[in-house]
Each structure stands twice: as C-alpha cells, then as structure tokens.
Amino acid sequence: MATSSLEQKLSRLQAKLNQERRHPAPRIPLPLDKPDTSPMGASRPSRRAASLTLHRPLSGPEGKDKQDKDEGLFTLSLPRRGKEEPPQPPIRQRQCLALLPHPTCPAPRSLESLELDAKLQEVMRQTGYLTLDGKKYRVAFSDLETLGEMGSGSCGQVWRMRFPPTQQLLAVKQMRRSGNREENKRILMDLDVVLKSHDCPYIVRSFGSFITGTDVFIVMELMDSCAEKLKKRIRGPIPERILGKMAVAILHALHYLKERHGVIHRDVKPSNFLLDSLGRVKLCDFGISGRLVDSRARTRGAGCAAYMAPERIDPPDPSRPDYDIRADVWSLGISMVELATGEFPYLGCHTDFEVLTRVLQEEPPALPLSLPCSPDFRSFVSDCLIKDHRKRPKYQKLLEHNFIRHYEEANVDVGAWYREVVATTELRCAVLEPHLASKTLLKCSLSVNQRLLNIY
To answer: Which element (helix H / strand E) includes 297?
Structure first.
C-alpha cells in the first residue's frame, strides 16, 4: 500500500509539472505588410523586420525633452527611425467582451484576491518610468531600441534593448497577461519581488516596468549568461573557485529574500544563476516564489522536479504543504553537484516521475571522490543535501560554513574566467561555424566595453 500511495503522489506532482509546460508563451505569426490594427490606436503603416511586424504598445508624448523640476522626472520623446529595425516584442490583439450585468449581491472576494488587486495597483503606479543612474525618466516603451531576442521560455520572452539617451543596454522580459489566475499570480510575484529587491547586489536589478492590456514588460540590467549555459559551453566541470563565489552570491540572495521580504524562491537551479563579464553573480526569476507564513510555505508551487527537495515531493499531507527555506538549500546543493561535475546527478531519467522516485528512494547525491576539490566544499554540499529536512541547515548556519567564509574573502576574478571561457569555446567552434563564433565573440566584446563605460 505504501508503494502505491507514493506512486499516486508522484503521478499527481508530475501531472502538475506537465500542466505548467503544456502552454508555453506562444510565438505570434504576424504578416509583414498589413497595417497595425491593434486596439492601442489607429492603423499605422507596417515596418519591415526579420519575421515580425513591429508594434508600439505605449505611445510617448511628442515635443521637446523637458524636465519636471518638482518630481525630478525626465520626459523623453524620440523621433521615429526611418531605417529598418530589429523585431520588436509583439503585442497580441485583445478580444472585446460584452459587459455582464452586475449581480445585486456580489460574491465575497478572498483575501488572496484582494492582495493581488492591491499588488497590481501598486505596480501600475510605477509603470512607464525607468530609473537609471539615479535619474527617473518618464518613458514610452517605443523609446527603447530593440537589438534582438535573447531567449524564451514558458513564462515569455527576453529581449536585448538599448535606451538611446544614455546608450545603456537592457534586458526586457515580456510576459503575456491572460485570464489564467495562476499565470497572473506568477507575473505579479515576479514583478513585486524584483522591484522591491533593488538594494540587494545579488539579485538581478529592475529599472522599471511597462504594462499594457496584453503584456507585462520588466526592464532589468543586462547579464551575459547563466550557469546552465556555461556548463554546456565548457562541456565539463566549473572550477571550485568559481562555484565558491557563485554559492556566496546565491546564498546571500536567498537569505535576503527570506529576511527582508518573507519570500522563498522555490526555483533554485543553474539556469537562474546569472553571470556577466565583470564577474557579478545574481539570482533571477521569482515567478513561483511564495510568501512565508511563520517562516513556512503554505502553498505547493511546482517548480522544477529535477531540483525539488524530498519534503516537497512527498509531504505528510499533500493538501496542506508545510516546508521552509531548507527546500531551497537542497536545490542549491543539487545545483552545486551538477556544476562541479558537469553532469546532472540523476542521469538516465527520461521523465519527471523517474527523477522524483530516485530523489525519494536513493541516497542523496555527493561530490565523487575522484573529483579534486577541498574538504570544505565536500562538507558544504553534504550539508545542503541532508535528506531529513529537519537536520538540514538553514541559510544563517550555511553562511557561517568555512566554505562560504573562505570564498567571501578570497580574491577570485570571475569576470576574467568568464571572458576566457567565451574566447576559448569560440575558438574551439570557429572551424565548424566561423560566422556564429565571430558574432558571439563580438557581442561579448561589446558587452564588456559597455559595462566598463557604465562604471567609469
């Protein structure tokens, strides 16, 4: 009976994970020569791009640049460019729904619904502004220059953009608004956390946001890559000294979220560890983060099965989840093993069900004895991957670990290592794909120069 019950729990969890992946952000095929008939305004002539018709979701005021002396705001208006531009983030057309009669006795709204509305109103008050280098600008989304798409996932797309008045490069995350309550909760949570975490150097910084009837755009600092992509580039282990600095940054970010905002991340994994060519390491993606009640999470929140802690997979009462920040400690430990070895610890699994079963039934992963690493690193990973969550250390105790203390003080040039990795891997593939190699190397070089200009 116990085995049957466990299989039922794993099947339910796998079904939830599959449901999250079932509806990825759709790519919208748009004709190149039809006029824009979106509800944002009158019909405009189209502008040719590689594969998308450009839309301008927000319209900026026309006229000369002017400064509001009372509020310290800069109102910008940029002329439209006459040359061809890269594809802009598409805006979906919105269906107009007939108004329904108001019920005489409206149904009472839940506390969660009221909190979501309050959070949305708070975010709406900040939309249309960018804060860069201590100056607050009033900006139309059309003022940003699109340089291309950086990537996409189940939550939306990320675009590389430039703010022409300062020439600053930005990453803009585009997420679709919909009638799905869970999707809207994820968008609001992502926005809420990143906008409030401006004072943490280990969390990707937001400069502002734009909200339209169909999309939400979060404007963030541009990072060069993530730990997951670097692992694939290297095709092998990442050095301990780099992982030491990475662990310090991620642990401080998680501790900050818990202590300052009462939030648990719940999606700690290498693809959410961002790095740049200056050596900075930051945590991102807060869509499935959860609020802590009495330091414990009360909602399930699926996340990624591969990094999920045992107590989240098989809780005592699935209808009433009850776990804490130590679930993210487990995820950090799995990430460290993967990056230190260059391989995911549960190899050979073809489904989430297989991974979840092995997490529950097998001993926790560990750094192989053949791997050259320090005893402190082995001890840190072992502490993170204690299977009984009641014995697993929390953030504060881990911050006092010798491994973390050592790499907080150690002088490690992560930026130099990153640039060397990019140059080496580009040289390796130059023979096979020289045009791709040169483009990537040029992009990295431009990124470094841009950041150095921003600093000096």
So the answer is: strand 296-297
SS3 51: coil
**Residue 248: per-residue pLDDT:** 98
- The CATH homologous superfamily to which domain 225-414 belongs is Transferase(Phosphotransferase) domain 1 (1.10.510.10)
Nearest 5 degrees, angle CA 395-CA 401-CA 406?
Answer: 120
In DSSP terms, 161 is beta-bridged to 146, 170
- In this predicted structure, the answer to whether residue 428 has a pLDDT above a threshold of 90 is no
Class of domain 66-89+121-221: alpha beta
Place of tokens 């080496």: 424
Burial 320-355 (b: 16+ CB within 10 A, else e): ebebbbbbbbbbbbbbbbbbbbeebbbeebeebbeb
Question: CA distances (Å), 426 to each of 275, 417, 430, 451, in order?
Answer: 18, 14, 6, 21
Q: Per-domain residue ranges for the chain?
A: 66-89+121-221, 225-414
Output the DSSP codes for 74-95. EE---PPP-S--PPPPP----P
Return the SS3 of 46. Answer: coil
**pLDDT bucket at 12, cuts 50 / 70 / 90:** confident
Count of CB atoms situated within 10 Å of the CB of 7 = 12
Spatial CB neighbours of 41, under 8 Å, sequence gap ≥ 6:
59
Residue 75 pLDDT exceeds 50: no
For range 171-181, the mean pLDDT: 84
Whether residue 448 is predicted with pLDDT greater than 50 in this model: the reply is no
pTM for the predicted model, two decimal places: 0.72
355-408 pLDDT, tens digit per residue, is 999 999 999 999 999 999 999 999 999 999 999 999 999 999 999 999 999 999
Is residue 224 exposed (0-12), middle (13-18) or buried (19+ Cβ within 10 Å)? Answer: buried
H-helix segments, 307-413: 310-313, 326-341, 352-361, 375-384, 395-399, 402-409
Confidence of residue 207 (pLDDT cuts 50, 70, 90): very high
Nearest 5°: the CA angle 179, 183, 184 is 70
Q: How many CB atoms lie within 10 A of CB 426?
A: 20
- Looking at this protein, which amino acid is placed at residue 34? K
Q: Tell me the two tokens of residue 2.
A: 């116990």
Length of the chain: 456
Q: Average pLDDT of 441-455?
A: 45
| Catalytic residue annotation | 267
10 Å Cβ neighbour count for 32? 12
